[in-house]
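Observation: inputs received (chain + nicotinamide-adenine-dinucleotide).
Thought: call the complex predictor directly.
Action: predict_structure
Action Input:
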Amino acid sequence: MTALDLSSPVAVVGTGTMGQGIAQVALVAGHPVRLYDAAPGRAQAAADAIGARLDRLVEKDRLTGADRDAARARLLPAESLGDLADCALVVEAVLERLDVKQELFRELEGVVGEDCLLATNTSSLSVTAIGGALANPVRFVGLHFFNPAPLLPLVEVVSGFATDVTYATRAYETARAWGKTPVACADTPGFIVNRIARPFYAEAFAVYEAQGADPATIDAVLRECGGFKMGAFELTDLIGQDVNESVTHSVWQSFFQDVRFTPSLAQRRLVESGRLGRKSGHGWYDYAEDAERAEPHTAERQQPPAYVVAEGDLGPASELLALIREAGIPVREEDEDHGTRLVLPSGGQLALADGQTSVEFRDVVYFDLALDYRRATRIALSASQDTSPQTLAEATGLFQALGKDVSVIGDVPGMIVARTVARIVDLAHDAVAKGVATEEDIDTAMRLGVNYPLGPFEWSRRLGRNWAYALLDDLHLRDPSGRYAPSLALYRHAYASDKREGNTS
Ligand SMILES: NC(=O)c1ccc[n+]([C@@H]2O[C@H](COP(=O)([O-])OP(=O)(O)OC[C@H]3O[C@@H](n4cnc5c(N)ncnc54)[C@H](O)[C@@H]3O)[C@@H](O)[C@H]2O)c1
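Observation:
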């Protein structure tokens, strides 16, 4: 057990949103806590705010009155950095500026003891760069909490280039002793969550920019079909478009403008126009009281087809066959070496989104990937100008007969959920191959940090080892910018699985 002893004082420097939350966590865990802020009076105000939050915990029976009083007695605002001399851990949560953080740690190094663990809560700066200001950076780590820190369990424990494993382990174990779920990661842009989550926003914005669908429809498909708690447009309105865009921009710049992380022009314009989301009353959506609520496009009711013919294995969508039969529509299954499609009475076909466009085929309608076809309440379909109206009507009627709302979007290869999940899976494999974190920690981080219904590796296992690779490979062919180029790690993953199954062709 290498966690800090509970009798060791912990300091939090910078007592804004994050500093207060982190201080509350350390305090409730049992540490004496010192608060320091450069703005006069702010540390005292933070102590008062934390005290008020403890009162609310008592009201909700989540803390006893005696524990609250003891915690309050352990919480002390500090007049100067010098008051932090006996602390065993200092967590910094000041302004997100490299020079400000470096200057602070330089000063702190002259104040605290040699063994004091120094931690930054930076979300976008390099831990290594901040620690570079120190004479002794081995005890310097990133401790990346998520907002609100008292409620969200995830903490990314980031090792910089010079961080010694003893200190990283101490930080990790301390976060765990505080009731958090720590994950270990290397110091690369965005750490785990802010790196692997980028496509969730980027692909939704790309579909919108390509005029594939409007925000309300894309959000509804991500939620009701993809199983995400919120869509990308409503979530970024909540986070703040400026905040979300600045993380995207920072990750893209820090990866030397890697095209896989390219920011969205549409989001840039939104920020430039001052539409920052809920906090400004208008973002992708209008939050004025009298504003009309944006509704997703939902297709009119259509007749279900009299029967369907299933050719080949539908892969991640194979559950659909049982659902179609349960809806009373006969299914005839035919073995097919190449096809993985449902053939409709019109002669047209229905296929799971695979990175190709409908226009490449005579009469096909694509349907999007669902987290769970039984529980999904909406499904997106895409058709091209060459798709016959009858095929689209039969496809629509089929999913409506299964109890789903149907949103018909433009001819977008990889559609909405499928391309988003494939890219998340790819970035996750790439991150593991580059030593950023383990598969388990990445799954944990994405479930707890951004509430994904499944971790990328859980998703990958469910979809089949080569599904994401095949989809991205197809998308890359159609958009050779490199944005969709599957990583070498994903290629290896897909190829290794083929070999294991005896198919090396
Ligand atoms: N807000 C979030 O959702 C979030 C989430 C994770 C990480 N972070 C990171 O946490 C840090 C703090 O963010 P925040 O949202 O709490 O900011 P904030 O603006 O709410 O608080 C920053 C505080 O730092 C103080 N400060 C500034 N310079 C200082 C200095 N040199 N010495 C001491 N105090 C100083 C300010 O007076 C202010 O009280 C940033 O690095 C940010 O990237 C923020």
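Thought: report the result.
Final Answer: The mean pLDDT is 95. Residues 42-59 form the longest helix (18 residues).
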